[in-house]
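Input/output pair, single chain:
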Amino acid sequence: MEYAIWAERYRAIQAEFGFPFGREEESADALVRRLAPDDRRDPLGRVRARLHGRDAIVVGLAPGAGPPPVWRLAAGDVPPAVIAADGATADCLRAGLVPTVVTTDLDGPVPSEVSANGRGSLVVVHAHGDNRAAIERWVPEFPGPLAGSWAGPPRPALLNVGGFTDGDRAAFLAEAAGARKILLWGFDFDRVDEPDPVEQARKRAKLAWAERLLAELTATGRCPVRLWRRDGSELPYPTGRYSTSTR
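Output:
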């Protein structure tokens, strides 16, 4: 997504959730300082080298979803790429799947992401206003390749191709990197595995934005977006519940 379009979407998100942009800039600065020189170089290009021309399985953490059944996919000319959204990394590793890419804001089971990184996953660390401490704590622990992202204006060392939560941001990343098709596994925009009612409401509001943004990606992106079901069938991503406007 072009930044001019994304900036309009993100202003609406900031207004709804009250995100102070100054804190996001501080976290982004902290992330850039802690990335190695090679990890600051051409972040989108390095993601593209892993995803371009491949089907991308974006793995979410919907309750009960578990790892994607990659054995159900027909053999193709190139193997699919697995993009794990934050906590879904642990499910993938337990099933013997090392993600091609991990998207994370470091609020899940980070040790599993460190482990995946050591086994070859490119980890895209996202900076936002609430995770500066996690950036300081965890970024030095990753032994393998990293890239950085944030929601603000373009920076040479940080990518921003759109997306809000780890899951929908992974789909936007796959589209920007030239994936052939995006399969969404483990995405549920209605159920929230959270007992606290206040936090549950906040998570539901974030999932509503994720669903809305994915609808826009489906309508305007270059590659098809599909929901992948347990029986192996694929459905076009539904765009009916949300329009592609920001209101």
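The chain has one domain: 3-232. The chain is about 40% helix and 15% strand.
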